[in-house]
Amino acid sequence: MRSNLQSGLVLAAFCVATLLLSCSRETRVLRQPPPADETINTVQVSGLNPGANSIPTPPPSNLYQESAYAVSEGQKLYEQYNCVGCHAHGGGGIGPALMDNSWIYGSDPENIFTTIMQGRPNGMPSFRNRIPQYQAWEIAAYVRSMAGLLPKGVSPNRPDHMRVKPAESSTPPQKPTGITGSPEQHQ
Hints:
The chain is built from 6 helices and no strands. With 187 residues, the protein is mostly helical.
């Protein structure tokens, strides 16, 4: 009887220790450090550029694409900066829809970041010097989640007050049309 009790306690202690060691939380950077002298005009928007060399594309910032916290912050910022005024909740309106697979300027994070910071002709205003770069990366990550371009574990669920579309975490993955990473060429 005593050996059964001891083995039960050892088993319970082992289970508790295993559970405690197996739980890990995502590390969150709650306040981004200010950027050092960064040049944000590094994404090539078109084939036209001064000089004979093309502009090298910076590596995408996976810090924001892989963080559920950054994507949910991007969701809040999308509402707070009134992106919903033109793009609705991803379904489009005055601005293009963000939930489909048709991307005019490319669906890569750096293309969306450039669109936010530099703006686009005939509608999209520039937010350069109006919002911090890390917030633009968070909004870009959220925009990609609306189109199903992020893993389900990272994409946020729909807030309770919104019932107009399915949650981003249940959006099926889509392959963007056009040339991913570069602007779609219209003739």
